[in-house]
Structure to design on (352 residues):
């Protein structure tokens, strides 16, 4: 069986991850939207707009983007640098979620510059709290930039900002930030085939996540360890870890991560030769990803369904799905995924 064309998705924690169930999110967004109707200082309004952007990011990316850009516009008008930095970062996070990595990188870089400016001001005023806040912003900005480079397959560019981010987060004793950095660094090593080093980073992250009672961080690391077992052809163990992660994401209500976990399970079934179960999980993921307009998960689901049809010798359907995945890969500028799709094309055409 041709195994190499199934593409997994690592469930990496973004540098700003918000562990909120969907039912709680709707309640909080309603309350925040009512607050907007009440007169506030401009800085308070910016804060509310940014909070709304964060609350909507997992359920409605268009609304999230609308609020982050409103916050950015108001902050810019008032030269409110903290608000500008937060708004730029939130806008970058929305574009990352939407799969527009080039725009995300642009906003993250602009946010980083603002956080550096805040750090300089805090040092001049010798305000220790402001220094810590701005350093946290710089660490997050570096982590976000490294994560985008990783997602685009630019690993050499990713590793330096990721290590700088981890160093700053350790200095700040920012455990949630440390989890994010460890995961992202581990993923770079995993992608490069250095499984031993990747496992070390993932294991450190899992330990901290469990200490904090962080369900989403725990789920992410269960996925990571599942990937390591997959690379070692321990498919039964891999499925166990992936299923544990899926269960946690379902309890949390994080649909984006549910879609990614379904892909991971589907890939593992595909590697064991159970094509029907693999196709079932890919199709489930595709429906959720379409609902969320999550291009990344749509891309991988389409590609993997194409690989299933290839292995079933249904080459017309295989080409149909793989061509759709190629369009998205090119839109997102994902070099590695574009190459994967072309490999899939080759394996289809040699059999036609």
């Amino acid at each position: 069986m041709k195994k190499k064309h199934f593409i997994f998705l690592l469930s990496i924690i973004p540098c700003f991850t918000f562990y909120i169930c969907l039912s709680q999110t709707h309640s909080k967004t309603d309350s925040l939207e009512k607050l907007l109707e009440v007169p506030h200082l401009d800085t308070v309004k910016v804060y509310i707009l940014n909070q709304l952007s964060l609350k909507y990011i997992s359920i409605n990316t268009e609304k999230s983007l609308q609020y982050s850009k409103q916050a950015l516009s108001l902050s810019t008008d008032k030269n409110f640098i903290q608000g500008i930095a937060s708004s730029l970062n939130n806008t970058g996070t929305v574009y990352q979620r939407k799969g527009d990595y080039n725009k995300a990188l642009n906003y993250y870089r602009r946010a980083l510059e603002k956080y550096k400016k805040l750090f300089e001001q805090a040092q001049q005023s010798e305000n220790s709290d402001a220094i810590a806040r701005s350093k946290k912003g710089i660490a997050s900005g570096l982590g976000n930039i490294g994560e985008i480079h990783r997602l685009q397959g630019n690993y050499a560019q990713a590793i330096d900002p990721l290590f700088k981010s981890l160093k700053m987060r350790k200095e700040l004793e920012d455990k949630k930030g440390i989890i994010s950095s460890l995961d992202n660094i581990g993923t770079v090593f995993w992608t490069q085939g250095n499984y031993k080093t990747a496992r070390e980073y993932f294991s450190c992250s899992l330990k901290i996540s469990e200490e904090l009672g962080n369900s989403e961080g725990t789920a992410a690391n269960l996925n990571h360890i599942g990937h390591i077992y997959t690379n070692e052809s321990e498919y039964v163990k891999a499925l166990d870890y992936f299923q544990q992660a899926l269960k946690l994401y379902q309890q949390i209500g994080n649909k984006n991560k549910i879609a990614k976990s379904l892909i991971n399970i589907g890939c593992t079934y595909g590697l064991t030769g159970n094509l029907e179960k693999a196709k079932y999980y890919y199709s489930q993921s595709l429906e959720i990803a379409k609902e969320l307009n999550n291009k990344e998960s749509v891309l991988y689901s389409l590609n993997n369904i194409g690989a299933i049809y290839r292995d079933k010798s249904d080459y017309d359907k295989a080409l149909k799905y793989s061509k759709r995945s190629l369009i998205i890969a090119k839109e997102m500028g994902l070099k590695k995924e574009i190459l994967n799709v072309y490999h899939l094309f080759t394996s289809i055409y040699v059999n036609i």
Remarks:
- Confidence is low (pLDDT under 50) at residues 11-26.
- The chain has one domain: 22-349.
- The CA atoms of residues 210 and 218 lie 6 Å apart.
